[in-house]
Amino acid sequence: MASGEKTHPFHMVEPSKWPVVGVLGSFITAIGAIWYMQGGANWVLLAGLAVLFYCMYGWWGEVVHEANNGADHTEVVRHGLRMGMVLFIASEVMFFFAFFWAFFNATVPMLSKAAHTVWPPEGVIPLDPFGLPFINTIILLSSGVTVTYAHHMLKLNNHARCADGLFLTVALGLIFTCAQAYEYAHATFGFTDGIYSSTFYLATGFHGFHVIVGTLFLGVCYWRCKLGHFTPEQHVGFEAAAWYWHFVDVVWLFLFGCVYWWGGLGYMNG
Question: Which of 153, 148, 147, 164 lies closest to 218, judged by CA?
Answer without folding.
Answer: 147
